[in-house]
Amino acid sequence: MTTLDHVRTAEELHKAYDAASYDVVAAGPEAAGRLIAEGKVGPVNTALLPDYHDIPKRLRTLPAYNRGGKVYGVPYLWEATQLVYDAEGERPRGADALFKSGAAAIEDDPLSIAVAALALRRTEPDLGVDDPFQLTPAQLDRALALLADRADKGRIYWTDPLDVVSGFADGSISFAQTSPYVVSLLRRAGRPVRAASPDPGPGRADAWMLAAEPQHPSCAYQWLRWTSAPRAQRDAAAWNGLAPANPGACTGRA
User: Fold this and answer.
1) In the predicted structure, residue 180 carries a pLDDT above the cut 60
2) Where does the signal sequence lie (predicted)?
3) How far apart are CA 196 and CA 51, in angstroms?
4) Would residue 125 count as lying in a domain?
5) Into how many domains does the chain fold?
6) Counting beta carbons within 10 angstroms of the beta carbon of residue 84, is it exposed (0 to 12), middle (13 to 18) or buried (19 or more)?
């Protein structure tokens, strides 16, 4: 019997993982580190995946999915953070625009700390932010304070994309930090919005990971072979608007 469960946050993923038995799990970087540290996932034998080395090295070597020279995740899809704004509004010039208004929606996700850090690099250069993923204690405190600012003035911290759609529909928000998938939802809902990518802007990649002790290892590797191949990634990218990790998925029709 095949069981497929869907979660929206890293915390939901860990709760589901503790409550059931899975052979493979699709995890973002914020969940991957904990899965590895707790021994819930194991190294992947990439020699069994014929399409693995077609995936660019910059994705294959992401720190979130590699430990001690071993590979723990097979990159699947990736996305860049986008700033969505009302089509009649002014185009934001950087991530700092997101924090200047209370009428904004920020994803309730660790990646938002990096977005805040990049905004601080633009507005508070004396803080010395260089790498938004390697912050000093002072920089981290300032980024968290920026995220919490204006929380009482209509700011939304979202986990469900429909909260963003509703916010633009009723006019309660004018800016949102989103993914290409949410932009697609907004446009399909008929909302007149535009999207801009902050320069620079953070991104994230999701990867398939192998359970430390899979009950069905052969089936698990068949799944990893299928999801790392161009056809599966092409179909997935066409469905949710994200970018495939395997460049071969960028040719042909979904």
Assistant:
1) yes
2) none
3) 32
4) yes
5) 2
6) buried
188 and 109 inside one domain: yes
Residue span of the structural domain in which 240 resides:
10-78+204-250
The CATH number of residue 22's host domain is 3.40.190.10
Asked whether residue 176 is assigned to any structural domain, the reply reads: yes
Do residues 178 and 97 share a domain?
yes
Contact 237, 179 (CB under 8 A): no
pLDDT band per the 50, 70, 90 thresholds, residue 178: confident
* Cβ atoms < 10 Å from Cβ of 75: 24
208 and 187 share one domain:
no
Distance in angstroms (rounded) separating the CA atoms of residues 163 and 161: 5
Pick from 60-74, 99-113, 133-147: least confident:
99-113
